[in-house]
Amino acid sequence: MKLNKLSSVLICIAALFLGGCTVVDDFLSEDPSKSTRKTIQTAEQLDMVLARYAGFYQENPDIMLASDDYDIRIDINDAMNSGYYIAQLVYGLWNDRNSVDTRYHTWGKEYGKVYYANLVLSNIDKVEGDEAFKANLKAEAHFLRAYCYFQIALAHTLYYNGSNGDELGITLKQTTSFEESAARSTLKETWDFIEADLQEALKVTKPFQNTDGVNQNWRATTAAVKGFAARYYLYRADYEKARQYAEEVLREYNVLKNYNDPAEMSRHSHVDTYTINPGTADQETVTVYYPYTYPQMSSDATRTLFAEWSEMLYMRACYYGYWWYIPSQSLLDTYATDVPGGNPNNDLRYYYYVLPDFGLRYCEKTTRGRKPGFCQFFYDTVISGPTTAEMNLIIAECAARSGNTADAMKYVNNVRRNRIATAVYTDLTASSQADAVTKVLQERRREMPFVMRWYDLKRLNANDPANQVTVTRTFYPYNETTILSGETPRQYVLEPNSRHYAMPVSDDEISKSKGEIQQNTY
Amino acid sequence: MINVFFSRAARFRSRAVLLAFLLLLIPCAVWAQNIRLDYQNTPLITVLGSIQNQSGYKFVYNNSLIDVNQRVTVQTSGERIETVLDKTLKGTGISWKIIDKQIALSPADNRTVVQQGGRQLTVRGRITDQDGEPLVGAAVQNLTDKTYAITDIDGNYVIEVKNPATAVMEISSLSMETVTEPLNGRARLDVQMNPDRVLLDEVVVTGYQTLSKERATGSFDIVGHAQLDKASSNIATRLVGAAPGIAYTTDIYGNPSFSIRGTSTFSDQSAPLIVVDGFAVSSSFTDINPNDVESVTILKDAAAASIWGARSANGVIVITTKNARRAAEGRATVTVDYSGFYKISPKLNLDYTLSRASSSDVIDYEVNNFHHWDAPLWYPEESDYSGGNSVVYDLLNEARLGHISQAEALSQIEAYRKLDNSEQLRKYFLQNASTFQQNLSINVSTARSQSVLSLLYEDQQKIYKRNQDKKYMVSFRNRTNLFKWLDLTVNGTYNYTSSNNSNTGLPALSPYEMLVDSKGDYIRYSGGISLNYLNRHVPTDRFPYADWTWNPVEDLYARELTSASSLARLQAGLTFKIIDGLTVDAKAQYEMIQGRTHNYYTEQTYLVRSTVNTAASWNQSTNQVTMNLPKGGFLDQSTSQRNVLTLRGQVNFNRTFAGRHAVAAIAGFETIDNVYQTFGHPRTYGYDDNSLSVGTFPNGVGGSGALTIRNWQGSAQTFGYTNSFSYLTDRYFSAFANASYTFDGKYTLSGSVRTDASNLITDDPKYRYAPFWSVGASWQLGKEEFIKNVSWLDLLTLRATFGYNGNVDKSTTFKPLINPSASPSTLTHEYTATMASYGNPALRWERTRTFDVGVDFAALGNKLHGKIDVYQKHSLDLIASVSLPAVQGTSSMSMNSGEIDNRGIELEIGSTIPINRNIVWDGALMFAWNRNRIASLNYYPSYAYQLVYSGGSYAWMEGYDMNTMWSYKYGGIENRGTETVPDWQPTLVGKDGVHQTFASWPSGDAMNISYDMGTTVAPVNVAFSTSLKLYDFDISLMLTGKFGHVFRRESFNYPGISGRSIPNAKYSEIIDCDPAERIHLPMKDNETRLYFWDRFWGYVDYLTENASFIRMQEIDVAYNLPKSATAWLGVNSLKLFVQASNPFSIYFNKWNEDPEFPRGSAPLQSAYMFGVKCNF
Hints:
The complex is a heterodimer of chains A (522) and B (1176).
Chain A: H1 2-27, H2 43-51, E1 58-59, H3 62-66, H4 74-79, H5 86-92, H6 106-123, H7 131-156, E2 168-171, E3 184-186, H8 187-201, E4 210-211, E5 214-215, H9 222-235, H10 239-252, E6 267-276, E7 284-291, H11 304-307, E8 317-319, H12 329-336, H13 348-353, E9 354-355, E10 373-374, E11 381-383, H14 388-401, H15 405-416, H16 433-447, H17 453-463, E12 471-475, E13 490-494, H18 507-512
Helix pairs in contact in A: 2-7, 6-7, 7-8, 9-10, 9-14, 10-14, 14-15, 14-16, 15-16
Chain B: H1 6-23, E1 35-43, H2 44-55, E2 58-60, E3 71-79, H3 81-89, E4 94-99, E5 102-107, E6 121-128, E7 139-142, E8 147-150, E9 156-161, E10 168-172, E11 179-182, E12 191-192, H4 197-200, E13 203-205, E14 210-212, E15 220-223, H5 225-228, H6 236-239, E16 246-250, E17 256-260, E18 273-276, E19 279-280, E20 293-299, H7 302-305, E21 316-321, E22 333-344, H8 350-354, H9 359-369, H10 375-378, H11 391-400, H12 406-414, H13 422-429, E23 434-445, E24 449-461, E25 468-483, E26 486-500, E27 525-526, H14 531-537, E28 549-550, H15 552-558, E29 559-579, E30 582-601, H16 606-615, E31 617-619, E32 624-626, E33 633-657, E34 661-680, E35 684-687, E36 709-710, E37 716-717, E38 724-743, E39 747-758, E40 769-779, H17 785-788, E41 793-807, E42 817-820, E43 833-837, E44 846-859, E45 864-883, E46 892-916, E47 919-936, H18 946-950, E48 964-967, E49 970-975, E50 984-989, E51 995-997, H19 1006-1009, E52 1011-1015, E53 1020-1030, E54 1033-1043, E55 1046-1048, H20 1067-1071, E56 1104-1106, E57 1109-1120, H21 1123-1129, E58 1133-1147, E59 1167-1175
Parallel strand pairs in B: 2-5, 6-12, 18-21
Antiparallel strand pairs in B: 1-3, 4-5, 6-9, 7-8, 7-10, 10-11, 13-14, 15-20, 16-17, 18-19, 20-21, 22-23, 22-59, 23-24, 24-25, 25-26, 26-29, 27-28, 29-30, 30-33, 31-32, 33-34, 33-35, 34-38, 36-37, 38-39, 39-40, 40-41, 41-44, 42-43, 44-45, 45-46, 46-47, 47-53, 48-52, 49-50, 50-51, 53-54, 54-57, 55-56, ...
C-alpha cells in the first residue's frame, strides 16, 4: 500500500513535470488568432497589404488649397454659414506655420502609405513565394514609395533646380523601424532617392489589365508606373524622357472618354433645389445639377463608378472632406478661352463639373449665396492620378517645348475632341511655339483642375520664366483660432520664387520627433 | 440543520441511493474514520496538523489564547475524531468543540468545579446555540462566589448558588459570545448563545491554499456568512459595501462591477480575476448560484494575489462554494434547503429618464426655431426623401413649401399642445421589473463522502415590456475520501439562460406624438423616409410593401429578439496525502460557454419593409420598380463558444518543527488552454419563422460592372452573404511556489515566486515568460509579553508586504501584425489586409508593484475589531498609446511605456455588542480612499478638443488622474460683429485668456482650453452596515457612500430642427438666463452654427457638480420561526424575510440628479423583496 501510494504519486509528478517541460514551448507556439494579428510569412500576405486600394487612393488637399485653382475670398466667407476654417486658410494664405489639425496634411497621409511600402520591402526577401511574384511586389513597393515621396516633396520642399541641393528635403524612411532616424534629408538626396525608387519601380511586369469591366488601376502596372515616370520627368524638365514614357503608356493603353457620348458622360437624376430669398420679391427656385458620378463613395459598392473611370491609369484622387472645391475666377475664366463662342458651357468639363449655384449648400439661401463649386466624384473627390488625357497633354507639352507645334496641337486636340461639344468643336491651332506652350498649359489647367496646379506652378516658376505666376488673394487677417472679420482685409501674395512653395511641417510633428525633424525657413 | 439518524434516514434511502447511483459519486462502502497518531513529546501544532490532514476537519483557534507549541505525547490507532481529540488535548488545558467542519479550540477552565453543594439554591438550565442545539461543555460561572458548572451532553447544567438574589452568572463557550446575566433569584436560567464571528472567520482562502489568517502576511478581505446569506439573484450584489478595498459601480438593476484599489492598466482588462473553488473562471458573477456561496475572500496586495501572477494586478475575488457537512461516524445525513423570493420594482420614472420639456413648451420652441438659427440649413426641400422630423416641423415645412397655408399649419399644431404620450409610453413600453427565484439544495453526507445538489430557477422581468431573462442552474459538488491517503473532489455546474431583448427602449418621439389614437389604432409616423415625399413623388403601391410608415408599438410586437447562453463547468481534483504534512493535488477544470443570438424581424416591422423597399431599383421615368430583396422577415444570428481547460499539479507542505518553527509551502504548475470562437451569419432575407422558408436574392448580391445593383435612389449597393468566423486561442503556462515560515507563533515571513508564459507571438520563446514575486512579514505584536498585560487588547498584528503582480495584454508584439480580410473586396475581387499593430519594440509584460502595510486588531473581548491597510501600487510597462511623428507611418502606437500610481488607505472597524441573550447589536464601518495618477504617458492630444469632447482614453494625461473630467470654461458672450450690427456669440475662454466661439472646433493647445474639474471616480468609498437581532427578528441595513468626485449635471440641449430634437426639461433654466453665466439660446437670428453647439454645451465648467452621495443600499428584516412553530410545521427552521434595495439616496448636488445615473437615462431601480428560506 505504502509503495503503491508513493510510486503512483511519483509517477504522476514525473509525468506532469516532464510533460510540462517538453511540451510547454509547443503549447505556447499556437498563434493567438487564426484570422487576425498575423505575422508576415508569405508573399500573398504582402500582396494583400498592397491590394487595399481604399487605404491608398486618397490624397490630402493641402496643395490643392494652396494653388490658385482654389479660392479664398471675402465675399464667399461672408456668404458662408460658417466661414472658412483656419485649417483651410493656413494653406490658402501660405502661412509660415502649419495647422495642428492634420486632416488636410499630405505629410502624414503619405508617410502612412510609405510604411506599407517599407513593410513589403523589409519582408519581401524573407517570405515564401514565387520569385517572379515577389519581384513584381518589390517593384510595386518601390513605386508606391516613389509616388508618396514625390507628393510629400511637392508639398514640403522647394523646387529642386539642380543647384539648391543643400536645401531641406524630406524624411526618407526606408524601414518600418521606429528607431530609424526621422531627420530630413537634403533636397538632392530626396530627389535622387525618388528617382532611384522610380527606376526600381519600372521593373514592374504586370500589364494594365481589365477584369470584370474594371481596369486594375489600383495596382502598380506597367502603364501606371510609366504614367508616373512621365509626370516625374516633366516635373524635372526632362522633356525627352517624359514624352518617351507617355508614349509608351499610350502604346499600351489609349482610351479617352468622349463627354459627348451619353454612355460616357451624363447628368445624375438627382438635383438639389433651393428656394432663395424666400418671402421677398426676389424669391426664386434654383436647381443644381450633378454629373452622373454624383453618388457618395463610402464603400466598395459605391466606389465602382470611380474605379471604372476608364482614363485612370493609377487610382489616386484628391479627397477634400470639406466637400466644396471652390473654383477661382481665373480657373473659371480658362474655360471661356479657346472655346467657340466664348461660352464655357461648350466645354463639357465645365458643363458637367462646374455647378454655378453649388455654394447654396453652404451659404445663406440668398442671391449672395450663389457661388460656384466643382464636383467630379461626389462633393469630395477629384481624380489626381495619371490618366490617358494627362499623357496626351504631356506629349503635347514636350512637343511644344521642342518646337514641334504640329505634334503639340495634335495631342491637345486628341483630348479636346472628347471634351468640347461636338456641335461647336474645331481643332485648336497654335501661332507660335510660345503660343503652343501656353495653349497646352491652359488645357492642362482645364483638364486637371485643383490637383495638378501646384505641381505646374512650381515647375513653371522654376523653368519657364514666360509662364511664371504670382498668386494674390485679398482676405481678412486671422489668428490661430479666428478670422478677424472686423478688421481691414489685406493682400496675401505668393511670389514665383517664394520659399512658401515649401509648406511648413506641422509643429506637432517637430515636437513629437523631439526636434529631429527640422522646420523650413522662411 | 440537524442530523438525521440512519433509522430515520431509511425513508430517504431509496431516493438517496438513486441520487448516489445517478451521480456515481457516493461510495458504496462506508469506511470507518480512523485517525492514526504516534507522537512522542511533539509540538501540539504538529499533531493538530496531522489530525487536520487525516480527518479533513480544520482547527480554528486564537493564538493569543492557545499555546500550540506545548508538547504532547499521543498514540491512537483508528479511533474516532472525538476520542482522538480527547486523547490529544488531555492535560493541555485546552477544550475542543466541533462546529460544522471546524474544530474550535479554547482554554479549558481548570478551576474547581462545584457540582454539588450545601443548602444553597439549586439552579438548573440549558445552554443552546443559535439554532437551539445543545452546547456541550459550556462553562456556567457564578461571578459572585467563583463557582462553576459545565453543561452535559444535552446542554443541561446544575449549579448550587449561595446568594441567588445578587448572583451574576457568566456563560462562556468556545466560539460563542460570552453572556453575562444577573440571576435575580431564579431557579432556572436557559441561555441561547450567539457565535463569535471573529473566531470563525479566521481562515483565508487564496484559491491555491487555505491559510490560518494569522499566518498570512497579505492583505485580504473576507466576506462572511451574515452578508452572503441574504437573498440575491447575483452574488456580486452581496459584496457591495462588504469589504473596504472594493469599489463598485452598478447597472440600473444594482448588478455591480468591481474595481480593487484603483485602475492599474490602460487596457480594458481592468476587472478583478474571479476564482471559484480554486480555479479562475471565464464567466461572470451571474453564472454563480448565489445560494451556493459559502465564503468570499478578496485578495488585494502583492503577497495575497501574487500567486495568481500575470492576471492578478487588478486584484482577485475568490469564491468558495458550500459543501455538505461531514457526518459523524456511522451516520448519514440528508438535509434539504429551500429558498425562494419575489422581488419587484416600481415602473421606470419617465420624467427622469426622458427629461423632456412639456408638449406646449416643445411646440413653442419648435415654432420659434423653425424660422431661426440654423433651421434654413436643414429645411427638407421638395426633393428630400429623408424624414424622421417631428409632426410639428413637418407641418411647418409643408407650409413653407406651399402645400398648406401657414395658418392651417398653426391651427393643426395647436391641437398637439394638449397631448402627452407619457401615459401611453408607460402602458405600452414599461412594466414592473421583477425577479422570481426558487432554489433547492439537497445535502447528502456520510462520514466519507459529502454531496450537494442545488437547483435554481429564476425569472427576471426587465424594465421594458417583453424583456425577460430566464435562468436555470444545476450544480453538483461531491467530496469523497476514497482511501485514507486519497481524496476526490468533483464539482459540476450547468447553467442555461434565455433572454428576450425585443424591446430596444423608448421610441424617440416628441411628447405630443401619441402611440395610439382614441380608437386604439396605431398612429403612423415616418420611420426615416419623409411621408410627404412618399405621398407626392413615389408610387408606393408599386414597391414590395405599400406601407412605408412606422409605429413603435407595432414594431415592438413584430420582432422577436432573443439570445441564449449556456455554461457547463466541471472541476475535479485528487489530493494525495503522502507523509505527515505533505500532500499532492492534481486538479482539472473544463468550461464550455456558448452564446447564441436569434433576432427575428417579421415583415410587419419597419426595418423589413423599409429595407426591402429602398433596396428595390426604381426607374423614376417609367416608375418601374424591380425587387432586389425577397419579401419576408429578416433573421440575424450569431453564435459563440468558449472552451477552457485548466490543469494544475501542486505539492503542499505544512509542518511545524521543534515546536516553534511552522512552515507552510506550496509549489506547482498550471496550464490554461482557452479557445474562443465566434460565428457570424449573414442576414437571412425572406425568412418565415413558422415555415422556416427563406428567400433568395432575385438579382444577385451586387458588385461592380454588369453586376451592379442600384437602390431606389440609384446608388449602387451590395448585399452581405458571407459567413464570418473568428478563432482565438489564449494559452498560459505558469509555475509557482510560495512559502511561509512562522517562528514562535509570532513572527511570520512569506515569499512567493511565479512565472507566467503565454502564447505571445515572438521569435524567441524567452520573451513569453514573466517573473512575478512577493515577500511579506507579519508580527503578532499582541502575543509579546509586554503587550499581553494589556488586558483590553485581544489581538494586534502588524503586516508588511512587497511584490509584483501582472496584467495581460497580448495586443502587440515586436513585429508588425496584419489583419487579413475574410472575404475579397466586391470591387477589386482581391483579398486585402490592414495593419493590426505597427510593432512594439518595447514589448514586455505589464507589471504592478505593490507595497502594503497593515494592522489587525481586536479589543475589549473582541467587542471591537478591525484593520487598517495603507498601500502604494505602481504599475509600469503598461501598454499605452504613444505619440509618434507621422513619418513613422502612424501617429500613435501601443507600446509598453505607461505608468500608473495608485495609493490608498483602507479601514474596517467592527463591533458586536450583546445587550442580552435575545438582543445583539452588530455594526461595521468600511472606509477606503484611493488616489489614481498617470505617472508616465508619452502621448499628446492631436486635437484641441480631445481631452474634453473625446474623453475616455483620449483624455489621459501624464500627471493627472485617469478619470479626470476635463471641461471647457464658459467665457460669456462676445460681440463678433460691429457696434452697429452686433453679433453676440457664446465663447469659451482658454488659460491664455483668449476667447473662442462655438462656430468651429477649438484650436490651439488642448491643455490651454481644457480645465481639470476633478475625478469622476470616487476617491472615498464608505459603507456602514448594522444589524440587530431582536428575539426572533433579524433587522439589518446597509448604507454606502461615495465622496470626493464630480459629475456633469444635465445641460439644456439647444436642439436645432434636424431630426426629432426635443428640448429637454432644462428649458426653463436657460430661457431667461444671464448669457454671461449660462449659454443662452442663440442671440443671432440666423445662427447657422447652432447645430455645431453640441460640441460645447454639454462640456462647460458650470455643469460640474459634486458627485458625492449616500445610498440606502439595503434594509433587511427577517423573522425566524420559533422552534415550537417549526416543529409543528415539521421543518428544522423557517425564515421569512423582506428586503428593500436602494429605496432612496441622498445626493450632494442641488439638482436632485443621481451622479451615477444622470438625468436623461434610466435611474437605479429600487426593489422590494419578499421571501422564505427553510431547511428540512
